[in-house]
Amino acid sequence: MHVAGGLKKTKSTKQGRGLGEPTLVRWLLIVVALVFLALFLLVPLAAVFSQALEKGWETYLAALHEPDTLAAIKLTLLTAAISVPLNLVFGVVAAWGIAKFDFPGKSFLITLIDLPFSVSPVVSGLIYVLLFGLQGWLGPWLQAHDLKIIFAVPGIVLATIFVTFPFVARELIPLMEAQGREEEEAALTLGASGLQTFFRVTLPNIKWGILYGVILCNARAMGEFGAVSVVSGHVRGSTNTIPLQVEILYNEYNFVAAFAVASLLALLALVTLVVKTVAEWKVRQELANN
To answer: Which among 277, 88, 272 is positioned nearest to 169, based on CA atoms?
Structure first.
């Protein structure tokens, strides 16, 4: 068995070397990747921060302390604080049902979860306008009951939930399918209830996958522009999120303030990238251990 293992290892090593590209080709590919990374990631980030700090820290901080900007930051945080937990609950429940059970319509449910990935955010925003706008299907009823969804916070939250709800589910479904059902079935056989099985067996195995999905969901919720732009009405100090505030400041030629506010989203992207990398590494470790 030792000899066979050694032969197998030698064979796989030779195959790996045979499939390897020449050193020049490998370095060329690496250089091309680094050039693209610099052009499309590092240079734009450097441009954002250099423009934001062009007139010094005092101007930068003053731009962030503008009442309309503070209102946009608060609304963005509020929207993320509502949409992310709701998408977390939906994602965990959907992934648990899809990965652990077989039922009619399973493929259709997966297709519905992927729907926001294939629909333009602008189109999703228009759908909410057609549903809840003054001329929409539910518009007259909402107006009669003094309920406002479009051009108000509820519409922004609904649009954000729609464009972000696949993220947690799509991260957890393959992870939970790879882990299989054996541990849950063993726990149920030993007398554990469904909730006990979930909290003591399933949840510890997917915690890093949940974190990974929540990070992506939060980043998209705070950076969403298209759908929110349609349903917000661009009311300054009321229904503008951070991306919409950046657009308004830029259109007013207030470039320093626009880039200062945009730097908040850039910082969010950098933090998201770091935490995402850690969570991704943890998920790979969990899959390898299983």
So the answer is: 88
* Distance between CA atoms of residues 275 and 272, nearest Å: 5
Residue 141 Cα to chain centre, angstroms: 34
**Long-range contact list for 103-112, CB < 8 A, 24+ apart?**
110/173
pLDDT of 9 reads: 46
For the entire predicted model, the pTM comes to 0.81
Query: For residue 137, what is the DSSP state?
Result: S
Task: Give CA–CA dist 186/147, Å, rounded.
Answer: 50
* Rounded Cα distance, 267 and 224, in Å: 15
Most distant pair of Cα atoms in the chain: their distance = 82
Here the tokens at position 276 are: 């995402």
For 186-232, give the DSSP string. HHHHTT--HHHHIIIIIHHHHHHHHHHHHHHHHHHHHH--HHHHHHH
Q: Which amino acid is at 281?
A: W
- Hey, how many other C-beta atoms are within 10 angstroms of the C-beta on 22? 8
Asked if residue 286 lies in contact with residue 204, where contact means CB atoms within 8 angstroms, the answer is no
Q: Which of 287, 289, 290, 282 is nearest to 175 (CA)?
A: 287
Instruction: Give the model confidence (pLDDT) of 251-262 as tens digits.
Output: 988 888 999 999
Per cent of the chain over pLDDT 70 is 91
Nearest to 84 by CA among 157, 175, 150: 157
- The length of the chain is 290
Structure tokens at 275: 């935490």
CB neighbourhood size of 198 (10 A)? 18
Q: For residue 95, which of 20, 202, 195 has the smallest C-alpha distance?
A: 202
Those residues of the chain that have pLDDT short of 70 are: 1-21, 283, 286-287, 289-290
Cβ-contact 78, 160 below 8 angstroms: no
Tokens of 18: 């045979």
